[in-house]
Amino acid sequence: MDQVQAIGVKDFDPSVISQLIDVIKQDNDFVVSLQDAITMTTISKSVMYSMITRGLFPKQIDNGWRKGGFRNSDLQEYIKMGGAAPWLAMHGNQDQKDAEATRLNELNV
Q1: How far is CA 50 from CA 6, 57, 74, 78, 82, in A?
Q2: I need a labelling partner for 14 at 20 to 30 A (CA). Which of 8, 41, 49, 60 fits?
Q3: CA distances from 22 to 6, 52, 86 (A)
Q4: What span, in angstroms and rounded, lies between the C-alpha atoms of 59 and 40?
Q5: Strand, helix or coil at 32?
Q6: How confident is the prediction for the chain on average, in pLDDT?
Q7: Under 8 Å between Cβ of 78 and 48
Q8: Cβ atoms 71, 31 nearer than 8 A
Q9: How confident is the model at residue 45, as a pLDDT?
Q10: Which among 84, 77, 92, 75 is positioned nearest to 35, based on CA atoms?
Q11: Each residue's pLDDT tens digit, 43-94
Q12: Among candidates 101, 96, 17, which has minimal Cα distance to 51?
């Protein structure tokens, strides 16, 4: 209970928090900080934010506290897929795909 109060969540039932922890453990997923995501992918923060906007990188999630982060499973999938183009093909919507194709055509890539 002390741990719950330390994070400022006084009104939650400890059994609910226990259930949430069990779900997280079962899912074997966790939130990776922005700094750790930068280290894992070797992408700078400004480039990462630009890629998120264009649908080329996993979106950040809100963890309910001050800082958000990324799902570890999303980052691992991004890395295994080989980067931005496969991520966009798998997860992007058609507008994002069209915009990126236009952008690349303008760059003659």
Answers
A1: 35, 9, 17, 16, 18
A2: 60
A3: 20, 30, 32
A4: 15
A5: strand
A6: 76
A7: no
A8: yes
A9: 92
A10: 75
A11: 889 989 988 888 889 988 876 666 778 988 888 888 888 887 777 778 777 8
A12: 96
Task: Give the pLDDT band (50/70/90) at residue 4.
Answer: very low
Query: What are the extents of the domains in the chain?
Result: 30-106
**Alpha-carbon separation of residue 87 from 15, 40, 41, 98 (angstroms):** 37, 16, 13, 14
Nearest to 59 by CA among 87, 40, 95, 101: 87
- Token pair 């609910």 is found at 16
